[in-house]
Design a protein that fits this description.
Elements (H helix, E strand, L loop, with lengths): L13 H7 L2 H4 L3 H17 L5 H20 L10 H13 L12 H37 L4 E6 L2 E7 H26 L1 E2 L15 H7 L4 E2 L3 H6 L2 H27 L7 E3 L17 H24 L13 H22 L3 E3 L1 H9 L5 H10 L4 H18 L8 H5 L9 H4 L2 H6 L9 H22 L1
Parallel strand pairs: 3-4
Antiparallel strand pairs: 1-2, 5-6
Helix pairs in contact: 3-4, 3-6, 3-8, 4-5, 6-7, 6-12, 6-19, 7-10, 7-19, 10-11, 10-12, 11-12, 14-15
Length: 462
């Protein structure tokens, strides 16, 4: 049955009917559609728009449909969309009384409400997964407060830091992702139901009652905007893109670090694969797949932005394409977060190799320049002196800590014996104790602060 068949004399062409159908993907919204319908009919009864006994009968039948779908007794199919399926099944069960359900609503405000309800739950689930990921990163970081490694810029060794400091940076990224989703949820949490097709209704409905029944924080303020708005879905996809980007950056480092050239980590066999032709290969495929799926998530955002471009008010059929993009990104992000959280404990860090790498590449050169500044030399001059010192070491093929004090003094009389202590890796890290720096005490503060902020922001989600 088509809900709109009265105006038409001919059946929809079979090809057009299949092309028009959204049931294969919007059936995912069955729970939200039924719960929204139950709230709507209760409101209709409370407002005297339909008799109370009809409202009760409709609500009871809808609850039965929900239970039958979830038990597997009722299979979703044979309809244009999930809304048609539910309403048709309702009418099959209770007859003409079921035809009163759609009073004072349209599929336009109905689907917008369903999607918002769905995304509110998705945000909570994704944030919970992000929380679990951050907690695993924090655990590894706390275990590696003394693990010295090189920090990089331009993928070149730059300055010594700790693994704890490095992982804390990703905790900050993922914590911002939770904060973004939390903020996004405010704009998702607006109920469009009651806006109908575009111009609301002549019936004396109580939208605030419906919103309360569905746990919405607000109701939409303009009926045209309510049914044509997909900003909330675009913002949700943007948040997914940010998570995916951060996961991709971490995965890229794991891919690099697992190479023989770096040898910083070993990924357990459970999260690696081999080659069909090269017997020696062990590939970090899980990390590569997470990295690769970033393009897919980005594409969904661009798809939805392009779909909404230049659409006139109010609802247009183009907007049916929103759900595929949203559902795909949501599922992709959830899978990536689950795999990453499971893979982290399966990674072994080669602390000895990390420390050895930190000694290479003259990573304490900035400490030498800072030493001269503290002795009274202008920084730009100290930078020049240290640069020539590094060039000297490079030509000789030795590290800075292999220079004698006399060699140091040949570049500047300001050098004293304490320069040898200054350029020790432990001291180079310890001396960077400013807020946000890699010193052990400061990193412990950062980790504690991340944990505290994580708990605070998660309270806003639920």
């Amino acid at each position: 049955m088509k809900l709109w068949s009265g105006r038409f004399e001919r059946e929809t062409d079979e090809l057009a009917d299949e092309f028009n159908s959204s049931l294969p993907f919007d059936k995912k919204l069955y729970r939200q559609d039924i719960e929204g319908s139950i709230a709507h009919c209760k409101m209709l009864g409370a407002c005297g728009i339909i008799p109370d006994q009809d409202a009760d009968r409709i609500a009871g039948a809808l609850q039965g449909i929900l239970e039958d779908i979830e038990s597997g007794k009722l299979e979703i199919g044979g309809a244009e969309d999930i809304h048609t399926f539910v309403e048709t099944e309702l009418i099959k069960r209770i007859g003409d009384v079921g035809k009163k359900l759609h009073t004072a609503r349209s599929r336009n405000d109905q689907v917008a409400t369903d999607l918002r309800m769905y995304l509110k739950g998705s945000v909570s689930e994704i944030c919970s997964l992000l929380q679990g990921l951050i907690e695993r990163l924090l655990k590894i970081a706390r275990e590696n407060a003394d693990t010295i490694m090189p920090g990089f810029t331009h993928l070149q060794k730059a300055q010594p830091i700790t693994l704890a400091h490095h992982l804390a940076a990703y905790c900050e990224m993922f914590l911002r992702d939770i904060e973004r989703f939390t903020d996004c949820k405010k704009r998702i949490d607006v109920m469009p139901l009651g806006s109908c097709a575009l111009a609301a209704t002549t019936h004396p409905i109580d939208r605030k009652m419906t919103a309360a029944l569905l746990s919405f924080g607000q109701i939409s303020n303009n009926s045209l905007d309510a049914v044509s708005d997909r900003d909330f879905a675009i913002e949700f996809l943007f948040c997914c893109c940010m998570v995916s980007m951060h996961l991709s950056r971490l995965c890229e480092e794991f891919v690099l670090w697992s190479t023989e050239e770096f040898s910083f980590i070993n990924i357990d066999d459970a999260f690696a694969t081999g080659s069909s032709i090269m017997p020696q290969k062990k590939n970090p495929d899980m990390a590569e797949l997470i990295r690769g799926k970033t393009g897919r998530v980005y594409g969904n955002l661009l798809s939805l932005l392009t779909m909404m471009k230049a659409l006139p008010l109010a609802y247009n059929k183009d907007m049916q394409e929103d759900k595929n993009a949203v559902f795909d990104s949501e599922e992709t992000i959830k899978k990536c977060l689950k795999v990453m959280a499971a893979m982290l404990p399966a990674i072994t860090f080669n602390r000895r190799r990390m420390r050895a790498a930190a000694k290479e590449g003259y990573t304490v050169a900035t400490d030498v320049a800072d030493y001269l500044v503290k002795k009274g030399m202008p920084f730009r001059k100290a930078h020049e002196v240290t640069g020539t010192l590094v060039l000297y070491c490079s030509k000789k093929g030795i590290a800075l800590d292999k220079l004698t004090i006399d060699e140091f003094k040949s570049f500047s009389k300001l050098f004293e014996k304490d320069i040898l202590d200054t350029i020790k890796l432990e001291n180079a890290v310890k001396n960077r104790s400013v807020h946000g720096g890699p010193a052990k005490k400061e990193v412990k503060r950062q980790l504690s602060d991340i944990s505290k902020r994580l708990n605070q922001v998660m309270k806003k989600i639920y």
